[in-house]
Design brief:
The complex is a heterodimer of chains A (136) and B (281).
Chain A (H helix, E strand, L loop, with lengths): L3 E7 L2 E8 L1 E6 L2 E6 L5 E4 L2 E8 L2 E15 L2 E11 L5 H16 L5 H25 L1
Parallel strand pairs in A: 1-8
Antiparallel strand pairs in A: 1-2, 3-4, 3-6, 5-7, 6-7, 7-8
Helix pairs in contact in A: 1-2
Chain B lengths: L5 H56 L15 E7 L9 H7 L9 E5 L1 H9 L3 E2 L12 H17 L2 E11 L5 E9 L15 E3 L2 H76 L1
Parallel strand pairs in B: 1-2, 1-4, 2-3
Antiparallel strand pairs in B: 4-5
Classes of the chains: A alpha+beta (136), B alpha/beta (281).
């Protein structure tokens, strides 16, 4: 299978740097898969599961925010957070989910707090769903 | 030997020794914190350069590229994000940051980061947008993204005409420099040569650009913060290192004084005994 070079960077450092067969990611307008020799392409990323095809298999990850670009068969995935399924801290995500839900239940929540808590809840749900998917 | 008695000198040596122990301990603490901070500052560098390149590519992709982030609302105030330390005793770290604020117009709005920064701007009665980020050491990426979102939103609403960040760049262990960086309006490099129009954007170049600007700013602020924290620890380590060396010097000097005073006292005692026995015989 044709491969192309992919670099995944986050503020915590480089998560992957090497050749891959495919990248599936949560783009802003829905899930997108990119194969080798894709036309030059740039999109923003939402939150959701990502799947990187390499060595005939697939490696799953949770991807949150950022952007993706592929130019001349060189791809860059710049994410706010990118965690491989086996790296996800399930306990931390669960406690974050609980915290966000507790906050959303409060009657006197400010609009700004509500936005933050909703985003935190979504992030936690994405992490949990990706971590579970690994066990199948 | 003129001056202090042996007892007074001994007391001074004792107090010098305990000061030296404190500065030495602070030096070691700063050195161990520095290792973590330095790793973080290096890790973000790659993220930042890749992101910057991608942003430039998008802006260069179409010849009539326009974005609200490139054109400020005229005649409104600038917003400054000023990153300083949480504690003192870090050499010139905090005062260098504040010296950088001298050119700031008095009507500017501020988001101070770090305890010292909050205190500084409160005292000078600047308009503080939020003082939620008092402790620089505990801020994480999520906090930086909320700061960026806040700043970007205000810029689009026309509350600020520009956004600056004042931080300390970590060059290496021995040198750090205070810098002022303009984040908004976004500066585009003028690129020579033909522009490649053959890039597919989803949904389109402008939307992509505008959606990622807040994330880009968040990354930049996080980078500036990481570098500042590393600089603070490096500056503290250095300051404490020279304080320890100074203490060592003073102790050596006092030791000499003490020995001289002791010798002097013994000589005097012998002279007195000899004089006494001479008088008797």
């Amino acid at each position: 299978m044709n491969t192309f070079h992919l670099t995944i960077v986050t503020p915590d450092g480089c998560k992957y740097d090497g050749d891959v067969e495919s990248v599936q990611m949560p783009a802003a307008e829905g899930s997108v898969q990119v194969l080798a020799h894709h036309v030059n392409f740039v999109t923003t990323l939402g939150m959701g599961p990502a799947s990187i095809g390499l060595d005939g298999g697939h490696r799953k990850a949770a991807c949150i925010g950022g952007m993706f670009s592929i130019t001349d068969n060189v791809a860059r995935l710049i994410a706010t957070a990118f965690e491989w399924a086996d790296e996800i801290d399930i306990e931390r995500a669960q406690s974050a989910l609980k915290r966000a839900e507790d906050q959303l239940e409060k009657a006197d929540i400010l609009p700004a707090e509500k936005t933050l808590a909703t985003a935190a809840k979504e992030r936690a749900l994405v992490r949990l769903s990706c971590a579970d998917a690994k066990k199948d | 030997m003129a001056g202090l008695s042996t007892k007074a000198i001994k007391n001074r040596i004792k107090s010098m020794n305990s000061t030296r122990q404190i500065t030495k301990a602070m030096e070691l603490v700063a050195a161990s914190k520095l290792r973590g901070a330095q790793a973080r500052a290096v890790a973000i560098k790659e993220y930042f350069t890749t992101f910057y390149q991608a942003m430039q590519d998008i802006a260069a992709s179409s010849s009539n590229f326009e974005s609200k982030f490139l054109s400020p609302t005229p005649g409104v105030k600038p917003l400054y994000i000023v990153i300083a330390g949480d504690r003192g005793l870090a050499g010139g770290y905090n005062s260098n940051v504040f010296r950088m604020t001298i050119g700031m117009p008095p009507e500017a709005k501020v988001i101070p980061i770090g305890k010292r920064s909050v205190e500084f701007f409160k005292k000078r009665r600047y308009e503080i947008v939020t003082d939620d980020y008092t402790e620089a050491a505990i801020l994480n990426t999520a906090d930086c993204y909320s700061i960026a979102a806040l700043a970007a939103e205000g810029f689009l609403k026309g509350e600020y005409d520009s956004l600056f960040v004042i931080y300390t760049n970590f060059i290496n262990l021995l040198s750090q420099s205070t810098e002022r960086l303009q984040l908004l309006p976004f500066n585009l490099e003028e690129k020579e040569g033909p522009r490649s129009e053959k890039v597919l954007y989803e949904p389109d170049a402008e939307t992509v650009f505008e959606r990622i600007v807040p994330e880009y700013l968040g990354g930049l602020i996080f980078g500036a913060l990481s570098k500042s924290i590393a600089s603070e620890q490096a500056a503290r380590r250095q300051a404490m290192n020279s304080a320890t060396k100074n203490a060592d010097e003073i102790i050596a000097e006092l030791d000499l004084q003490y020995n001289r005073a002791r010798q002097g006292a013994i000589t005097q005692e012998i002279t007195e005994i000899v004089a006494g026995s001479n008088a008797q015989s």
